[in-house]
Design brief:
elongated, about 500 residues, seven-stranded mixed sheet, Methyltransferase, Cobalt-precorrin-4 Transmethylase, Domain 2, Heat Shock Protein 90, four-stranded mixed sheet, about 20% strand
């Protein structure tokens, strides 16, 4: 979450509490910083301000020590000997009243964390070591399982019930892309335990694969036994708006679901040429990589509401069952990233199918405005919605403009054949046959619709675009172009 100086000052004025902690930290990190991080993760999350004393006085951090403190912090929270499970947190430098502070936003975790082997919880008075209080520890584990459904344990599901080839696929990915990753030397059970996908119930002592582990690695039939409503409905609805033009009903594990969503995107959405600096970047892939991961990571899997991904004319809308932490359109400047399924999210980040919490959303907003000429909308509620505007034409214009308007435009042979065919009034099916294309959607989107948008072809019944008697013909502009092309050919 991006915050400004005024928000930080307001936070300091409110003083320390269950969700706010101050640490002096002049030129090095104190040990109790990590105890506070552990407590926030175990409770409801919060904000840690370094460079402010307990009384709320801004003392600042030595400017020469800032970068080293940040580096030490990130190293420590990713060290399982310090914090287990490790956490993905960012640390932000903010200058207030001429002094540098470090701000750490800590979301609530779905796991129970230990710092140096001890369990810490949070109350209004600060951080409490509850390790030796059996009842409090049991309640903490129980609360995490109730709040985060991904942690539900299925003792009747063991590692041998999962798909070993999927686990190996993920292991191979980190082996190739992440040097010295610990998963490369682990067997399947060790990997699942490391990723918090295989847990032990502290109340019953029973161990098993969690809901998150099932959704990531189980065979399809087992997934539907555990989560009968699980599906992602991919729909293209442009021509036949009452039903659909294309559809893919995805009812499989989350890893393959991610790939199926992106395959549907590549099939039906354009990827216009875009340079970022001197490198080409696929705006489409950058945006919908985040959309796909968001749909899968932040879904409430205990809900009976199916997820939907709908491509319509000039926009994509997604619908996802949600456990909301607010309602309405999210504001990028004020929103606090909240992980709905932190274990699934962490696993997706390890296999490079998601960005760090919050950064992926900012990237989607940035590229979404360039791609669709409008800001994407993210709407929080019981059903989480994303609305992304998209361009409607193919990456390469079918009719390429020349430097001089007097020169006849260049067209592809298929476009020329289509223009010639429309000298005679014909239906869309007849024109598609003339061009020799089998895919009706491809023909409409990349040939007929662009030529109509250019004013070269028109409908014979313009007031009823979906009429069964609809046919197409050349406009005056289209006839002039065909004559010019014929003259050049001769």
């Amino acid at each position: 979450m991006n915050v400004n100086k005024q928000q930080i000052q307001n936070l300091i004025l409110q003083g320390e509490g269950i969700s706010t902690e101050f640490k002096t930290c002049r030129n090095r990190l104190n040990r109790d910083v990590y105890e506070s991080v552990c407590a926030f993760l175990n409770r409801h999350g919060g904000t840690l301000l370094l460079g402010v004393n307990d009384a709320g006085e801004i003392q600042g951090i030595d400017p020469d020590a800032v970068e080293q403190i940040k580096k030490d912090f990130v190293t420590a929270i990713n060290n399982p000997q310090k914090l287990i499970p490790t956490a993905y947190l960012s640390i932000e430098t903010i200058e207030v009243r001429g002094k540098r502070l470090l701000r750490i936003y800590i979301p609530e975790s779905s796991q129970v964390h230990r710092c140096n082997g001890r369990i810490y919880d949070r109350n209004e008075d600060g951080d409490l070591d509850i390790t030796d209080h059996t009842v409090q520890v049991a309640r903490l584990y129980q609360r995490k399982q109730i709040t985060f459904s991904e942690n539900k344990i299925f003792p009747w599901i063991q590692v041998q019930d999962l798909r070993p080839e999927l686990i190996e696929k993920c292991r191979n990915h980190v082996r190739v892309n992440k040097n010295n990753h610990p998963w490369t030397d682990m067997d399947d059970l060790q990997l699942l335990k490391s990723a918090q996908l295989y847990l032990t119930d502290p109340l019953t002592g029973e161990s098993g694969v969690t809901l998150a582990g099932v959704m990531l690695f189980a065979p399809d039939l087992l997934i539907l036994q555990v989560c009968p409503a699980h599906r992602t409905d991919l729909i293209l609805r442009k021509v036949n708006v009452d039903r659909y033009d294309d559809r893919d009903l995805v009812r499989t594990n989350l890893i393959d679901s991610y790939d199926r969503i992106l395959a549907f995107v590549k099939k039906h959405l354009p990827d216009p040429f875009y340079l970022e600096g001197i490198e080409r970047r696929s705006l489409r892939d950058a945006i919908f990589r985040e959309v796909a991961s968001n749909m899968l990571i932040h879904r409430e899997y205990t809900s009976g509401v199916p997820a939907r991904f709908i491509i319509e004319y000039s926009k994509v809308t997604t619908y996802n069952a949600n456990r909301p932490h607010g309602f309405g359109v999210l504001n990028l400047d004020t929103f606090a990233p909240y992980p709905k399924n932190p274990v699934i999210g962490a696993f997706f980040r390890e296999i490079d199918r998601a960005d760090e919490l919050g950064s992926g959303m900012r990237k989607m907003m940035l590229y979404g405005k360039i791609y669709g000429k409008a800001d994407p909308q993210l709407i929080e509620g019981d059903i989480f919605q994303m609305i992304v505007n998209v361009p409607e034409f193919a990456e390469k214009p079918l009719i390429s403009p020349q430097v001089s308007p007097q020169v006849t435009p260049q067209v592809t042979p298929q476009v020329f054949a289509l223009l010639q065919a429309t000298e005679k009034i014909q239906s869309a099916g007849e024109l598609q046959k003339t061009v020799g294309l089998k895919d009706r959607i491809h023909f409409l989107k990349n040939y007929l619709e662009p030529l109509m948008a250019e004013g070269l072809i028109e409908r014979t019944i313009p007031d009823k675009p979906r009429s069964s008697k609809q046919k197409y013909r050349l406009t005056r502009k289209g006839k002039n172009l065909v004559q010019s092309l014929n003259s050049n050919a001769n």
